[in-house]
Task: inverse folding
């Protein structure tokens, strides 16, 4: 039987583990504190993360560092246009036994890992991209009529170049919706750039240690899900999601004008779970509206489909979400 | 859940303070509305209809203010009720507690519970113990208090303000008027205060305002003056009828006195009769605008009548065995006093009109400076006057000045019928006119000489009538002066024309023209070797 003091201990442990991982990652990665927190939030909320940024700003390095810090099975898939789904999930191969009998044996692909880096995911064709759908949603892989469960924690970190670049295939909406957060990596500042150069041009680069294992992650996941949320706060998250739908009555003008399709219910789930992790990081045993506001952009920016007018006027989903945050009132009573 | 009562007590205190704040806000809103209404009503009573623009602005302000107050009242009524949940939200917002109290309050009302929920409630209880409701929801005066204070100040100022009589009385004294005009203006204002008829006083004020206004045209001034005169003349006619009524009253009373001497009628009957006639007159007066022209004869008759009535009352009081009500003649005397006041007021109005007319003449004479500019056609609309003499003065207002009648007409030996009672004389110009304002005029006899002509007819008839035809011809001195002035004028005209517009005389013009026509750019000449 867990007591109140146990709750406090769990919260402290959660924050402590989180802080340790963040500090360890920060030894390699300069800046991007928010993105590190975002990736960790996705990991602890049982989600997957999509990292977007121009080439060379450390997307892959960030994921590799995280894999080094976490004591998990890591695999990397470099997505290319000729990559096939079987290259990801695996395939049945003929296996000859000692007796000379030939049998079909499933050869597991790189998706069978705890931490999967799908590098430059939008360079592969949509068919190959969709190979990750079942794994991300169901945490299992089906091949030749056989379903293979994936080991927990299963965490996909996909990186992608901006869609405007050459040789990219936009991710299908269904695929995008599977990602818990979409994080944008910006160009580092002048000081950040100096720090990157200093760290990476010396004879010895800094090394990281594995500070957290599989069990601790699963425990933290359970702690995050235990945080209670009051109905008015949950209602705020629901109203935010509904405000992204142009057909909704309470939607702001900007939504009605520029949005073609709004966020799915997965968006609301992402808001709530992300807010729960945020609440724990803030040392609270309840979710506040501020937590929901903090994760709104990351959780909903890839779930909104803009119309042609928005594309023509270069309206981004972030602009619409900020407008929604401004227009949606906080709970009054 | 053991900490739940602490949270509830805290929220109830917050709710109570919210309720007090809300009540205070409502009260201040009502006070503001009442003060605003009072100020508007007071402002309307002050402005009245003297200044239509100000009145309209006040009404518009009142309507807008009423709309604003109605909207605020509706907003206040629609404001959500003060509940514990709202108190929790207010506490979270003002204490920056990140939804801690409101979440705890919500969890407290749920049947399901867990360690996490209990922990959250305990933390919230710990938080509220350190919070002071008085600091979270201080009982301060709402912002509308300042509005109420401002409105109260306005209302107080308006309460002490004097009503606007009219735009003219409130207007500052114009600075462009000459001392003589200012004196006239002051005098007219004094007379206007004595004028009892509002309509007439308004017309007179407008006329004075037009005369005082710097940018008023002559046509506007004349129009305003004519309207004022018309209003006064109308009242004069009414007063004339009243005067006739008084005459009739006097005659009736005189007749009744004769009857009383023969015993046919008693003094009391005379008083009754006088009262009845006066009532009838006053009844007519009430139906018509008041005032009358007061001439000395009428005043004398009225005084005689008053004396007569007093005597009648004395006689009635001394009569033996006769019951006479002393209130009857007193009422008659009161009515006569009232009539005398009206006559006096009308007299002031008449005098004001005369002063206004003189002021207008003064302004015209001041602007009739003899200058070449008066012949300018740059502003022909400013004085679009015909050469018709004024029916009041006989003067002819012309462009650039006034032709005074005295210089143009001959005096008659006796005043004509139309001249009687008129100071300015008849329009025909056969009566003494007002004193000349302007340059000194020569006597007519110096300018003209009377020459006789013999009428053609029978010799016998001439001797009988003794009349000889005659006419005025210019005198020798006048003829020579006129000729001299004509020559001088001719010279001046020629000089003026010759020099205008290039200031080059006629005889030099061709030379100058040739010079400029043959003017060429000079080529540099080769130096002689």
Result:
């Amino acid at each position: 039987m867990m007591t109140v003091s146990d709750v406090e201990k769990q919260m402290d442990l959660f924050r402590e583990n989180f802080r340790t991982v963040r500090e360890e990652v920060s030894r390699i990665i300069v800046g991007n504190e928010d993105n590190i927190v975002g990736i960790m939030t996705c990991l602890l909320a049982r989600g997957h993360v999509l990292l977007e940024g121009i080439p060379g700003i450390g997307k892959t390095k960030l994921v590799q560092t995280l894999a080094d810090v976490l004591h998990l099975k890591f695999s990397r898939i470099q997505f290319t246009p000729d990559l096939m789904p079987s290259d990801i999930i695996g395939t049945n191969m003929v296996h000859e036994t000692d007796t000379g009998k030939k049998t079909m044996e499933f050869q597991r692909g790189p998706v069978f890992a705890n931490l999967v880096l799908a590098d430059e995911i939008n360079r592969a064709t949509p068919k190959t991209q969709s190979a990750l759908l079942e794994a991300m949603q169901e945490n299992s892989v089906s091949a030749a009529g056989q379903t293979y469960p994936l080991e927990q924690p299963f965490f996909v970190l996909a990186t992608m170049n901006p869609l405007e670049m050459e040789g990219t295939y936009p991710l299908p909406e269904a695929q995008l919706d599977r990602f818990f957060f979409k994080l944008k990596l910006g160009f580092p500042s002048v000081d950040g750039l100096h720090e990157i150069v200093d760290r990476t041009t010396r004879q010895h680069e800094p090394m990281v240690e594995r500070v957290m294992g599989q069990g601790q992650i699963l425990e933290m996941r359970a702690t995050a899900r235990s945080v209670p949320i009051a109905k008015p706060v949950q209602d705020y998250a629901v109203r935010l999601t509904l405000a992204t739908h142009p057909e909704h009555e309470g939607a702001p003008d900007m939504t009605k004008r520029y949005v073609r399709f709004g966020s799915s219910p997965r968006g609301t789930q992402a808001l709530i779970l992300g807010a729960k992790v945020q609440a724990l990081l803030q040392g609270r045993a309840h979710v506040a509206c501020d937590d929901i506001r903090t994760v709104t952009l990351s959780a909903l920016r890839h779930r909104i489909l803009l119309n042609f007018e928005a594309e023509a006027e270069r309206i981004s989903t972030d602009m619409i979400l900020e407008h929604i945050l401004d227009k949606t009132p906080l709970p009054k009573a | 859940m053991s900490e739940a009562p602490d949270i509830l007590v805290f929220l109830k205190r917050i709710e109570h303070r919210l309720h007090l704040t809300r009540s205070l806000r409502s009260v201040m809103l009502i006070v503001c509305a009442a003060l605003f209404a009072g100020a508007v009503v007071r402002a309307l009573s002050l402005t009245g209809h003297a200044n239509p623009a100000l009145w309209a602005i006040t009404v518009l302000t009142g309507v807008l203010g009423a709309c604003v107050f109605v909207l605020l009242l509706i907003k206040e009524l629609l404001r959500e009720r003060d509940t514990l949940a709202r108190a929790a939200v207010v506490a979270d917002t003002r204490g920056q507690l990140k939804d801690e109290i409101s979440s705890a309050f919500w969890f407290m009302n749920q049947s399901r519970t867990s360690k996490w929920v209990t922990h959250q409630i305990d933390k919230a209880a710990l938080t509220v113990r350190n919070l002071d409701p008085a600091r979270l929801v201080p009982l301060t005066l709402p912002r509308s208090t300042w509005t109420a204070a401002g409105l109260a100040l306005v209302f107080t100022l308006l309460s002490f303000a004097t009503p606007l009589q009219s735009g003219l009385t409130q207007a500052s004294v114009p600075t462009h008027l000459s001392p003589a005009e200012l004196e006239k203006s002051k005098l007219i204002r004094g007379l206007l205060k004595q004028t009892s008829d509002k309509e007439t006083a308004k017309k007179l004020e407008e006329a004075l305002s037009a005369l005082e206004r710097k940018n008023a045209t002559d046509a506007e001034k004349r129009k305003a003056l004519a309207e004022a005169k018309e209003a006064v003349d109308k009242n004069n006619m009414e007063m004339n009828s009243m005067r006739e009524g008084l005459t009739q009253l006097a005659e009736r009373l005189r007749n009744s006195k004769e009857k009383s001497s023969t015993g046919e009628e008693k003094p009391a009957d005379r008083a009754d009769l006088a009262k009845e006639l006066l009532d009838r007159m006053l009844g007519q007066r009430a139906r018509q605008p008041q005032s009358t022209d007061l001439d000395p004869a009428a005043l004398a008759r009225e005084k005689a009548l008053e004396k007569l009535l007093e005597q009648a009352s004395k006689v009635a009081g001394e009569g033996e065995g006769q019951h006479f009500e002393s209130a009857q003649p007193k009422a008659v005397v009161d009515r006569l006093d009232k009539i005398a006041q009206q006559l006096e007021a009308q007299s002031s109005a008449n005098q004001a009109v005369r002063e206004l007319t003189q002021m207008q003449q003064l302004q015209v004479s001041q602007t009739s400076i003899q200058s070449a500019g008066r012949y300018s056609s740059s502003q022909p609309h400013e004085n679009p006057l015909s050469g018709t003499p004024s029916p009041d003065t006989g003067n002819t207002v012309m462009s650039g000045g006034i032709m005074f009648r005295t210089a143009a007409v001959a005096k008659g030996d006796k005043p004509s019928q139309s001249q009687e009672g008129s100071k300015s004389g008849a329009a025909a110009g056969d009566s003494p006119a007002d004193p000349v304002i302007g340059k000194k005029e020569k006597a007519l006899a110096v300018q003209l000489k009377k020459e006789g002509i013999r009428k053609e007819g029978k010799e016998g008839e001439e001797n009988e009538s003794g009349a000889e035809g005659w006419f005025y011809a210019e005198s020798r001195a006048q003829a020579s002066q006129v000729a001299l002035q004509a020559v001088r004028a001719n010279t001046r005209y020629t000089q003026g024309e010759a020099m205008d517009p290039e200031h080059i005389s006629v005889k030099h013009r061709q030379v100058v023209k040739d010079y400029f026509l043959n003017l060429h750019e000079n080529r540099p000449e080769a130096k002689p070797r």
